[in-house]
Structure formats: structure tokens, C-alpha cells
Amino acid sequence: MSLDLAADPDGVAVRTQANGGVLAQLTLSHPELVLRPTLRRAPEISLEPEYWTDAGGDRTLLFVTALGTEFGAFETALGTDPTVADPVLVDRAPECRSYRLELTERAITLVEATAAVGGRLRGCSSCREGWQFRLRFPDRNALVAFNDRCRELDVSVTVDHLRPADTEGGGPVSLTEKQRELLTVAYEEGYFDVPRRISQDELADRLEVSKSAISQRLRRAIAQLCGSAFA
Hints:
Blueprint: E1 4-7, E2 13-16, E3 22-29, H1 36-41, E4 46-56, E5 59-67, H2 71-78, E6 84-93, E7 96-103, H3 111-116, E8 120-126, E9 131-137, H4 140-152, E10 156-164, H5 177-188, H6 200-207, H7 211-229
Antiparallel strand pairs: 1-2, 3-9, 3-10, 4-5, 5-7, 6-7, 8-9
Helix pairs in contact: 5-7, 6-7
């Protein structure tokens, strides 16, 4: 990978990987990807990592947001998940909760693998198969190197979307699988028609999720599309 030099307004030279690059949306699957055992036992819950932090003494803490309603099953599953320890509920709302978790030695995160090849994690969310990563790589060689690292760990990689970073502003690369599914059904069933041919309640019944989850997912999906289009 190549690093170009750029100058900021103060004349300080900085290295840049911002020219060109590759945007990729990848679905990653492995039994010991972080929280994968919990996701299998509580499939109605959607997870979005907030951030990782070094807590000292070789301890890494992960904060995650959980969306859904079946929190009892989710919290029970957390208690037996070998990839995390000491789960703590730190915030709650009717259909949204935040947790602090300690990663165990068995947890596979791939955050380090992303950084090692010069990649940037732009977003991450749970999906049926495991985790969906939205990544930016400085070039295709970095993407290949990331894929090689996944292969070494026996992590299955499925490419959902791939495009040059120079084409930023359009395309579904920033959407999660559940957001894409919702927008597809909403569009096909006439949610965006005037007048509407399907309501949020009916979308919720169709996709077997709560109305609140549908509303939140719609807002986030549309916001991400607008942010990509107007960037």
C-alpha cells in the first residue's frame, strides 16, 4: 500500500491514504466471533458495538447497544457466552439497552486485523450469519491481506458490496442487512408511495419485529443513505 504526502493549511506534512481506496461490506462468520454464541441463542436482538477500551491488566472492555424486546433471553445467553465475561447493564430504554462486557481470550474481534492492513472500521452490526463489517481499505492489496487473515482464523468472509472509495455518495454499502431488508420490503409494498399502501405496524408484522424497532431502523437507514448521498 502506498502513502502519499499531503500538507495541511499550516504547512505540516501528513501521510494520507485518503486517495482512492476500497469500500467493502463483509459478512463474517465464526463460532467464536465475539458474542456470536449469544446471537445464536437470542436471534431477535440486534447488536451494534459502541467502542472498545483497554481497562489495564490485559483486560479489554466492549460496550454494545442491543435493540429489541427479548432482553431476558439475551441476558441469559450472555451469562454462558465463552467470548465475554462479567456482563453489566449500563443503560436502558424500552427497546434499547447498553451493556459493558469484558472480552475473553477466546473472542475473535478482527479489529486488530483491520488496523494491521491499514483498514478502517466504518461500522459494524450483527446479522443472521454473525457480524456485518463496513470497512475502508487503502487499496485492494489491503483487502486481500485482511481476507487472508480471516482465512488463517477460519473466519468465513462473504462480500456483500465492494466499490471504489472514489465513488462515495450512493449505493447501499453503508446499510446493514436488516436495514436493506426493511427498505426493500417498504419500497416494494408501497410505504413510500402517496398515499402509503403499508403502515409501520404492517411492516413490523411482516418482518416479525416491534413497531419501535421498525421506526428506529427506518430512521437510521434513511439517515445513512442521506449522509452518504450528501457527503
